[in-house]
Amino acid sequence: MNAAALIFSNIHDASLPELTEMRTMASVPFGCRYRLIDFPLSNLVNADITNVGIITHYNYQSLIDHIGTGKDWDLARRSGGIRILSPFITAFENSASGKVYTTRLEALMGTTNFLSRATEEYIVLSDSDIVCNLDWNDVMKQHIRTEADITIVTVKANSEKEELSNHIHVIRADDEGRIIDCSEYDGEKGNINISTNFMLMKRTYLLGIVRDAMAHGDSHFFRDVIYRDRLSKRFFAYRFEGKYCMISSMASYFRANMTLLDPEFRKGIFEVGNRPIYTKVRNSAPTHYLEGSKVTNSYIADGCVIEGTVENSIIFRGCKVGKGTTIRNSILMQDTYTGADVLLNCVITDKNAVIKDGRMLSGCEERPYFLPKGTMV
Amino acid sequence: MIKKKECVAMLLAGGQGSRLYALTGKNAKPAVPFGGKYRIIDFPLSNCINSGVDTVGVLTQYQPLILNDYIGNGLPWDLDRAYGGVKILPPYQRQGSADWYKGTANAIYQNIGFIERYDADYVLILSGDHIYKMDYDAMLRFHKEKGADCTIAVINVPIEEASRFGIMSADGDGRIYDFEEKPKQPKSTLASMGIYVFSKEKLVSYLTDDENDPNSFNDFGKNVIPKMLADGQKMFAYPFSGYWKDVGTISSLWESNMDLLGKNPVLNLNDTTWRIFSRHETRPPQYISADAQVVDSLATDGCEIYGTVIHSVLGSGVKVMPGAVVRDSVIMSDVVIGEGAEVSYCILDSGVTVGKNAKIGKENAGSGKVTVAAAGIAFADGTVTGEGQMITENVKGDNE
């Protein structure tokens, strides 16, 4: 596909403060062996979009570590490939770009170099808080058919079944899909179409928006561009009907992980045509289920050693589950160590947590108990 | 400018593996899957990189397609180097002649150019059909300390098995004074592991002599080593005592896989001080269903287990359907075991499908009676096979 892409790595960090204190939204671990960025990144690679810039803001060490050279996504390329776009600040405090961006549009202003040096005709914008398997080629087909200026991918959400945070944009479109209104979520009930913030447009069109915004001091992509120009320009919604989950709070993070225990959901993410989800290869040994282990309805990564009981849980790479230990409805991130006779229920442990023999910890589904990175209890 | 490499490894990977024939019909023995997500060749390649040997020639000849693809540019083993790294060395055509590799010694002889290109002082000869973790650098240091011309790694084997190996006798200093290839009456229990360090000049000269000898089999064990010994060259035995297994037979391949199981496995893949690297495609994590039972087993990415798995090793993407039971077996990637099927004492190669309620292999058959199915074989619903069979064609049901 003749497109370059930009991924926003930090944009919704505030909605998941526990997990993003030390990392970007993009590098939040998800589903046993992935980081959230693996999903948008794989979607790009699967559509042959191989010139990708990742817009960062702060705390992006874990992201750099995860991406490496990009070879695990086949993006270690001589031309194009993946690059991290660190925040752009000039040496002169008093100049206009003297502070780190605070909005999407300001972030884009820092990437004009990337945008103007790319040679691809189109540009894809992508956030990293949505897990889905999206076919960008299909988005492109609709974009060309509708002669759109911007195509925004939307999903159907039911605000009565899931909490929606107010940074979400509600999109209303007519029967042809043309966007007639967009607004921040205001508590509306029922089925609504919301923006995934996945967008497709001509690269030069985006450059035009960015230059115009610089000249006029605009800062908000949806308010100052989409809403303002919705009648004079052709903005279209692409309705994505596949499986997805949006991470907007600890509760939704917990729920999204647990959704992976649903075979239909897994199929909709991992077994879609010729579009696998890639991630960093860690070279762990296979998981070892010892004599006496009892594992049911769980999703488990490689490199674990399991001697106890695991039920309805998501176990990341390299975890140890000790003898007599029961892990229930929990998420254990990479290299979590649980000793003997531990009981965990609705617990999320961040990387390298250690739970000593005999400890009992419990949260509930709406408010899972969280153990930060490296804590020992 | 060519930089010098002190030691270059030559990995003999051209063998047919005829005793594993159901598994090597379309695959070279070194590329036979092992331990869920590895192939046999991962062990010598990982040993090389862990020992600081970063230039490895892999000599291929028999069915190289999967092997070549697997090694690729050597990235999984950190052997994708700007200079050195892993290189595939197939037989090739020269001015006036073109020969297959006639034997292990001839294979190296044909690639003396590779060794000289790196101006190596020492050549490490490895074979691609052993499962072990070994520090080649320690062996190289031993070779240098002894001022040896050739050092052979040896391991103590039970006397009753000794006649399967090249058997050596060495004095207190480790100097070899007697060598016999597969002796009927073994004089010692020091068996050659097929791992040699040669000083380059001696290797080149003996390989050249061997090539000019029309009666030679061009084999290290049969010709080169005995000749060097007869000439009184300085040959030393380097004692090795860790885990080492020649997986050239079905029973030893099965046993070696089983050695990965248990609470303190004799072969530990989770050892972070000596990691075994492998190439694998990205797959989702493994799913263990609410009705599944998995004990005393290894499973890896992409597995979906709805049935029962006991004392077995599963490769990536294996599906064990509800009611199916897998016992004491080695199941390679993407095998599907149908509902209610029973698989015992089996090695099922990649892509095998076992129909509903089929019974493959026999419970408590033992390592000598392992049933093997070749890649992609389909067993129809309800098929029953006995123990110890090699199955290379689809098995139809009675009602077809």
Protein model, in words:
The complex is a heterodimer of chains A (377) and B (400). Chain A is built from ten helices and 28 strands. By secondary structure, chain A is of the alpha/beta class. A seven-stranded mixed β-sheet of chain A has the order 5-4-1-6-11-8-12. Chain A has a five-stranded parallel β-sheet with strand order 14-17-20-23-26, with no helix packed on it. In chain A, a hairpin with a 3-residue loop joins strand 2 (29-30) and strand 3. The radius of gyration of chain A is 21 Å and the shape is globular. In chain B, helix 2 links the parallel strand 4 and strand 5 (85-89). Chain B has eight helices and 32 strands. In chain B, the strands form seven sheets. In chain B, strands 1, 4, 5, 8, 10, 11, 12, 13 and 14 form a nine-stranded mixed β-sheet that branches. A six-stranded parallel β-sheet of chain B has the order 16-19-22-25-28-31, with no helix packed on it. Chain B is an alpha/beta fold and 400 residues long. Classes of the chains: A alpha/beta (377), B alpha/beta (400). Chains A and B meet through helix 10, strand 14, strand 15 and strand 16 of A and strand 16, strand 17, strand 18 and strand 21 of B. Strand 16 (298-300) of chain A pairs antiparallel with strand 16 of chain B.
